[in-house]
Amino acid sequence: MSTLKAPDERTALPILPVLAAGADIAAPTSAPRRRLPDWLKRPIPEAGGTYFTKDLVGELGLETICESARCPNRSECWTRRTATFMVLGEVCTRPCGFCAVPRGRPEPVALDEPDRLAEACARLGLKHVVITSVTRDDLPDGGADHFRRCILAVRERTGATIEVLVPDFDGRTDSIDVVLSANPEVFNHNLETVARLQQHVRRKSQYAVSLKVLDHARRSRPDVRTKSGLMLGLGETTEELFETLADLRAVGCDFLTMGQYLQPSPRHLPVLRYLPPAEFDELGRLARTLGFAEVASGPFVRSSYHADEMAKMGARD
Q1: Residue 24: what pLDDT?
Q2: Please, are residues 254 and 227 in contact by the beta-carbon 8 Å criterion?
Q3: Got the DSSP string for the chain?
Q4: Cα gap 75→3, rounded to integer Å
Q5: Residue 11: pLDDT band by 50, 70, 90 thresholds?
Q6: Angle, helix 113-124 to helix 144-158, in steps of 10 degrees
Q7: Residue 184: pLDDT over 60
Q8: pTM of the shown model
Q9: Which of 128, 183, 189, 273 is close enough to 308 for a disulfide, judged by CB 3.0 to 4.6 Å?
Q10: pLDDT of 41-71, one tens digit each?
């Protein structure tokens, strides 16, 4: 178990409202937003480096989680001419309390999206492509076949390795199998937080179902690397965190990301604690002792941040 101390504020979780699907997220606490510590403040980058990626995404009518989730790494990644593409539209069917992606009634699936996605990846010169999506509970397969078509289109056009960051498909193994049939190199599904906080943070998603998704992918395709990510600072204790890491290892999860949760707006869940970089380093070191093939742990780490490097370092022989 971790030797890190769990500050008192991490054990005191405010009672947060659980909202119905499609409802607005009310301000979850009357407390003022915490000021960002110095280690989370970055100099404003020169905008010019992002224009190529931004213009290309706009030209091809694509969505990225970089914009939709207000990722703090967007400028850095776009300057490197890389992005995490979000397929199946820009509207999610689940009202998660941490996420800035709009929720409501999605538009019909765009059948030409795989081709537009492949065009963008080719023009960006990507060697490793990360594809994620909104959750589409309105679709019979949760969008699994669209994922499959996107993987095949991108690989045929670019020859790139593919990483998918998928929703839970309500635990439907047939949908998971459809995605896996396209042979992605990395299959990612995020737990996001510890078991106790699931109903506050993810609302309609379930901890056990997410573990089932990763377990099924691992058992069905042991040649595919599985991956999961956690946001820290939402009220988890160190003990709960390591119980979660143990659960991930129990289902054979290969790759792990841990990053600082940042409140997208006052209408989203509050940050209860900002973890300093040294603590992220220690958590990452301890996580590696549990047997993860690769671990990325730091304040700005996100699921797909430098995903190409993790995939390359953790590639199977």
Answers
A1: 35
A2: yes
A3: ---S---GGGT-----PPPPTT-----S-SSPPPPPPGGG--PPPPGGGGHHHHHHHHHTT-EEHHHHTT-TTHHHHHHTT--EEEES-S-BSS--TT--S-BS-PPPP-TTHHHHHHHHHHHHT-SEEEEEE---TTSTTTTHHHHHHHHHHHHHHH--EEEEE---GGG-HHHHHHHHTT--SEEE---BS-GGGHHHHTTT--HHHHHHHHHHHHHH-TTSEEEEEEEESSS--HHHHHHHHHHHHHTT--EEEEEE---SSTTSPPP--PPPHHHHHHHHHHHHHTT-SEEEESTT--TTTTHHHHHHHT---
A4: 36
A5: very low
A6: 40
A7: yes
A8: 0.85
A9: 128
A10: 776 656 566 778 888 889 999 988 766 556 6
Return the minimum-mean-pLDDT range out of 56-60, 178-182, 244-248: 56-60
Q: Could you tell me if 314 and 226 are in contact, meaning their C-beta atoms sit under 8 angstroms apart?
A: no
Tell me the C-alpha distance between 24 and 40, whole Å. 28
Mean pLDDT, all residues of the chain: 85
Q: Which phi and psi (to 5°) does residue 57 adopt?
A: -60, -45
Structure-block tokens of residue 30: 């009357």
**Rounded to an integer, what distance in angstroms lies between the CA atom of residue 198 and that of residue 308?**
29
pLDDT tens-digit readout, 123-178: 999 999 999 999 999 999 999 999 999 999 999 999 999 999 999 999 999 999 99
Q: Which of 296, 191, 300 is nearest to 241 (CA)?
A: 191
- Which pLDDT score, from 0 to 100, does residue 14 have? 30
CA 61 distance to own-chain centroid: 22
Specify whether the CB–CB gap between 258 and 236 falls below 8 A: no
Structure tokens at 265: 């707006």
Q: If you compute the radius of gyration of the chain from its CA atoms, what whole number of angstroms results?
A: 19
